[in-house]
Each structure stands twice: as structure tokens, then as C-alpha cells.
Amino acid sequence: MDQTAHNLQQQIELYGETLGEVVRRVAGPLGLTQSALAQVIGLSAPMLSQLMSAQRVKIGNPAVVSRLRAVSELADLAIANELGPNDIPDSLDRIRASTGAYTEATTQLRRSPGPPAGQTASSTPPFATPPGLTADAPTGQTWPSGGAPTNAPPTNALTNAPATARAVVREIQDLFRAVASAEEIQRAADAAAAESPAIAELLLAYGTGRTDDAVAHYEKHHG
């Protein structure tokens, strides 16, 4: 395997797809040039070009990764007609101004204590914890200030639209890749294959495969 092919494979293991695929997928629906996308996520245009061509493997700044994932989710919403063209510029401005951590920031439900008694929550910056969401809220539920859970699905923090399948899949991939390397996941899948082929398929789809393949698996089994 030559160096470029090796670097591309490393990008797939890190991000679920090559960075060139990410850029080509998101730029068109959002009406962005490569240079404009670089400006939104906080990279120089030459650096983004090097990442796309796999001269470099990894984005070193976690905030840039977060912004790129936010842009990716925004593009998915635009493709699904869940985001109007007039809403795109403001959403891009919020992404550009964000300083998010290494997460799928536009869709993740973060759980943290609400404001102390007698205080009101301050305005929530992009990708931050929604006011009133408590540490005890089950996954996929939010706890309003009155204390009763609602069975609301995760939503996009920029638009309040339901999270797309790709966004959910990216969070699952992030979880797998946070706890084990691609080699460890492959070994686990090999060990499970004989007795539990469906488990092995799950491990490979979300742990080592491309995001597009994982999305197909998710949509097949999630309905």
C-alpha cells in the first residue's frame, strides 16, 4: 500500500470517510467553495487541500473537527430539504463562531445540571447544553424544568430539526472509536463471527467501516 492509500485508510478509520469525500459531499448543498469551507471551519485553504489529497492525515484542532462535523450535518439537512437556502448563511455563521469540543456537536444531547434554584438559564451558545436538561435524563429524552420527561428525539442545535441518520451514525462511530482501535474492533468482530454474525457485522459497520456503509446498516435495521 503506498503512502497516499495508507493515509486515506487512516482518515476512514478516524472520520468514517476520507476528508476529500467529506468536503465534496458538503460543499455543493451549502453553496460553498473549498476556500469558503476552509474559512468556516477555521483552516487555511492550503491545509484543507493537503487533507483532501491525503498529504496530511488528521485535523489537529478538535474545534475544527467539531465545526466540520457541524457543517456536514448542515449539508445533510439541506439535502433533505429540512433547511431552507435562506437559513444556511446564519447557520454557517454560528458554526464559524463556535468553539465546540470533539463531538458531533450539532446533534448530541449533552446532559448537565440545570441552573440553580431561583436562577434563570443564560442564553445558550451554539452546540451548548439546552437549558433545563438534567444529568438524569435518559438517552433520547429531555427533562423540562417541570421534571417530566418527553420522548423527543435528538434535534439539530442549529435548526431544531430532527437529527439525520448520518448524524446519529457518526455519534455511534465516535463511541466505538473512542474505546477501541480499528484493529481491536476487527479482532472482536472475528471472535464474534462464528456464534454471533450479526454482532460481528455491527462491530465492523460502525467500528471500522465507511460512514456511508454504516448509514445503510442503520437505515436497514432502524427502519
**What structural category characterises the helix and strand content?**
mainly alpha
Low-pLDDT runs: 101-150
Q: Topology as H/E string?
A: HHHHHHHHHH
Report the sheet-strand fraction: under 5%
**Tally of DSSP β-strands:** 0
Q: C-alpha Rg, in Å?
A: 19 Å
Distance between the termini: 38 Å
Walkthrough of the structure:
Residues 103-158 are annotated as: Disordered. Keywords: DNA-binding. GO terms for molecular function: DNA binding. Residues 148-158 have a biased composition (Low complexity). This is DNA-binding protein. With 223 residues, the protein is mainly α. The chain has one domain. The protein is built from 10 helices and no strands. The protein has helices at residues 3-15, 19-30, 34-41, 45-52, 62-79, 88-97, 165-179, 182-193, 197-207, 211-222. Helix 2 packs across helix 5. The radius of gyration is 19 Å and the shape is globular. The N and C termini lie far apart (38 Å).
Keywords:
single chain; globular; 10 helices
What's the arrangement of secondary structure elements?
Elements: H1 3-15, H2 19-30, H3 34-41, H4 45-52, H5 62-79, H6 88-97, H7 165-179, H8 182-193, H9 197-207, H10 211-222
Keywords: DNA-binding
Organism: Kribbella pittospori
Protein name: DNA-binding protein
Q: Would you summarize the structure shown here?
A:
By secondary structure, the protein is mainly α.
